[in-house]
Amino acid sequence: MSRCPSLRARLLLCLATAATSAGVHAQPAQAPADTATTAMPATDLPYSGFASDAAKAKFAELLAEVRAGKAPNPTDIADQRQFYQRYNDARLQEVQRRYPAKVSELTLAGVSVHSVEPAGGIAAAQRQRVLINLHGGAFMWGAGSGALVEAIPIATVAGMRVVTVDYRLAPEHTYPAAVDDVEAVYRELLKHYRAENIGIYGCSAGGVLTAQATARLLQRKLPAPGAIGMFCGTGLLFRGDSGTLGQLAVGQAPMGSDGGASLPYLSTAKADDVVAYPMQSPELLARFPPSLLLAGGRDFALSALTTAQRRLLAAGVDARLIVFDGLWHAFFVFPDLPESQEAYARIGEFFDQQLGRAQR
Amino acid sequence: MSRCPSLRARLLLCLATAATSAGVHAQPAQAPADTATTAMPATDLPYSGFASDAAKAKFAELLAEVRAGKAPNPTDIADQRQFYQRYNDARLQEVQRRYPAKVSELTLAGVSVHSVEPAGGIAAAQRQRVLINLHGGAFMWGAGSGALVEAIPIATVAGMRVVTVDYRLAPEHTYPAAVDDVEAVYRELLKHYRAENIGIYGCSAGGVLTAQATARLLQRKLPAPGAIGMFCGTGLLFRGDSGTLGQLAVGQAPMGSDGGASLPYLSTAKADDVVAYPMQSPELLARFPPSLLLAGGRDFALSALTTAQRRLLAAGVDARLIVFDGLWHAFFVFPDLPESQEAYARIGEFFDQQLGRAQR
């Protein structure tokens, strides 16, 4: 986080620092001091032959933007917010062209939310179910259009109501403010839906918050949601190989070793807090509901996700992992990619299979 | 395959060629001609912080062996066979220290097999079930001790009988000889076990063969096995990002673009043969049994496995993926690593949950 806003919701980032960052050399390295460190030579990475032509074209476009330095000032939050607002607004137009939906704004337990339904309405079989979406954006932006980009395709493909939560953002509000807001909305929804008929999912920061909120609900002895989806983020810091390999693969500098711990939102979270970092508690994980973890193969979050899934499996949880080779962090904000549509289908199927069906 | 025996069963490979291989530069690259190709600078990759200390120590050891050029002559099959025989014999000693088992040799339908049981015998609840193990080794070696290294931990942890098949090897015998041998053994086992109580699994070349054999059984309209495990190999060529990223991460040269198609075994396999390359046929995949796919995060096979799982999911198959961050191709031949023991546990659970329980 020191160099780049690594927990950012989107690909476009500070390429300018890549060539001079720690761990990156102009020459092939000598054998490194740590005998388990691999000295990788400079290499051209061709785009994955397993990804679609559309993904390849979009990747080339994004890579060109990164090369051109099209990114907000990483030390200016107002500039970042403005940049990602424009970015998310553009994505939302693409989403709305493909997935017609009805969107309404309301307040639940004092928290602003959007309620999203398929334009044709909700099928009778899905009326007793609801999904809570927690948007990405480094806990600092992503409300509004960013949230709708994540909610509309899922509402439409799954045929379910999705409630997006405009949780309080950092740096003005830090952990556990966002968790408090999700808990408040969940308690309100419990008045209308059975817990096992409620799903929670989120992307990037929203994936982290999904893990945290689930831990909080369990800690408070509330009935657990029926299933959760942690996409491109989970209850672990962004450590492991993908912080280096995934970043290099998208033309960026390796992530710092803090793995996101220095994000403003987490400044008030202690390392041993099992709500802030739930993947460290096997006892808590054993009570997690069925979980879907999903990421791109070039996502800096990949190692956190694969590790979180292993810990959930070890705790006896039905945890599913899907990895899209060649795709990048939060790729499914681009609704026209076949891989995005595949992700929406898998997410919709997962919640349809895992959530309860009983009427309240 | 032109440069390195990429479908090899083990890590130790031709480092010597790494620095001069196509796609690897002594200097950071100019923007590559293909606008979707990423020019990655030389980089020190620290070992994954998500992996165990034991895995880190073993990786450092293997990296040192790679640096020292401890690898067989890639153009001399006799040398490779001798090298891997010694290698597998050493692994087998480690396996036998930790997992006591009874091993017997027999012939089924004219094919040599080993039958492996836990030393304490098979629990009553597992007597109606059997697993078929198809060993790795580039389709050119790995019988005997190599097969037992893969079979003994699973037999012991799952408490099931495992039959390892000494299928005919290349280059003396090519596709579909190995598939024929697996089919013959399967038909013989069908006389004693219900199809849904039989599992098939394999690592590396054995993972490829598991996919091929399953496709063959379905094509011949035999009853499908109850579940299969494709580890570090599957019914897809080794293309995608991991052919570059995974190889670089273990100190080796990027895999050639043929992704294994030039292996001697596959010299008689046509690209459109759905038994040789089953992942290209959605209709065939739809009939696949529940599948477990498992790989290390630094495995050159990772992209093939993640892509195969997506194709199986898209075909409606219950396909599970597990990825071990920082671990390498076929890491679980080292039985003392916590990650290996975790893999054995997940494999055992998977077959226990998926295979049928009815008596014949």
Automatic annotation (TrEMBL), chains A, B:
It comes from the Bacteria. Residues 131-332 form the Alpha/beta hydrolase fold-3 domain. InterPro entries: AB_hydrolase_3 (IPR013094), AB_hydrolase_fold (IPR029058), GDXG_lipolytic_enzyme (IPR050300). It comes from Pseudoxanthomonas indica. This is Acetyl esterase/lipase. The keyword ATP-binding does not apply. One of its GO terms (molecular function) is triacylglycerol lipase activity. Keywords: Hydrolase, Signal. It holds the Pfam family Abhydrolase_3. Residues 1-26 form the signal peptide.
